Amino acid sequence: MSTGKKPTLYAVEAIPAGRLVALVARIVGVELDVKPIDLYAKEQLKPEFIKINPFHCIPTLVDTDGFTLWESAAIASYLIQSRTPNSDLYPAKDLKKRLTIDQFLLYNTGTLYRSLTDVHYAVFQGTDPVPKVERLKEVLETVNSFLEGHKGQMVAGGDKLTLADIALYVNLSYIEVIKFDITELAALQKYRAQVKEALAPYNVNGWCEQQQALLIKLLADFKVKFAEDQAKAKTQ
Ligand SMILES: N[C@@H](CCC(=O)N[C@@H](CS)C(=O)NCC(=O)O)C(=O)O
After folding, report:
1. Contact between 58 and 11 (Cβ < 8 Å)
2. CATH class of 8-86
3. 116 CA from centroid of ligand 1 (Å)
4. All structural domains of the chain with their residue ranges
5. Residue nearest to atom 9 of ligand 1 (CA)
6. Nearest CA to ligand 1 atom 12
7. CA atoms of 136 and 131, how far apart (whole Å)
């Protein structure tokens, strides 16, 4: 893989899934050629992108040898294993630790992220957000209870950061964006601060905060465009 070229990442880096991949790339020292995709303009549905990823979701990685991968956790795991195979972030030789990390990655995508975006979609679509907020509260309380009994360790055990912590951290940042109050979830707040501190060496020039601000702006713009389109549709 010594072509001198950079892997291409089709993504919006500010969005949690894109942020996870971009953050992990920084940690393992891979420079990516990031190609932004305008979701509102439905660029992901253009034939040229469908050719790259028939599932038309971002982030999507195309490595320098043409290997193509989507789903942020799979991409992040691939970057770690292909570039830093001995990394504690995803310990290749420790089956049980690796699967514990996978377990949290799957929970993060299937349960935590889902419950966060469900609240967001309900607000956007003008449907009743209360049941979705209740579900999110339930999920976060479960994570909080787990952390309370986990004695300050990282989620997969021990004090070393793993990919599971980075993925959870990125989604826990999303909580701020939707302004969900977690002041009563002390263990969750403490864990978020702990991971933030561990990631500080990679947060060069406040990159994470910049992405957070961009995400807030992106979602606000999205809301305006969505309302305009709804209004236009009503007059037609
Ligand atoms: N579980 C996926 C989530 C990715 C995802 O939801 N991508 C959205 C944007 S946030 C997307 O590409 N939507 C466009 C589409 O599916 O057409 C991951 O972690 O990569």
Report:
1. yes
2. alpha beta
3. 14
4. 8-86, 95-202
5. 58
6. 57
7. 9
Three-state DSSP class for 10?
strand
* Fold adopted by 95-202: Glutathione S-transferase Yfyf (Class Pi); Chain A, domain 2 (1.20.1050)
Taking only the tens of pLDDT, the chain with its 236 residues reads: 445 699 999 999 999 999 999 999 999 999 999 999 999 999 999 999 999 999 999 999 999 999 999 999 999 999 999 999 999 999 989 999 999 999 999 999 999 999 999 998 888 778 888 999 999 999 999 999 999 999 999 999 999 999 999 999 999 998 988 888 999 999 999 999 999 999 999 999 999 999 999 999 998 888 888 888 888 888 87
**Who contacts 53 (Cβ-Cβ below 8 Å, separation ≥6)?**
10, 44, 60, 68, 70
For residue 210, the CA-to-ligand 1 centroid distance in Å is: 21
Ligand 1 atom having least distance to the Cα of 55: 16
Closest ligand 1 atom to residue 18 Cα is 20
CA of 159 to the centre of ligand 1 (A): 31
Q: From the CA of 56, how far away is ligand 1's center (Å)?
A: 8
Nearest atom, ligand 1, residue 44 CA: 17
Is the pTM higher than 0.70? yes
Q: Please state whether beta strands 8-11 and 68-70 pair in parallel, antiparallel, or not at all (unpaired).
A: unpaired
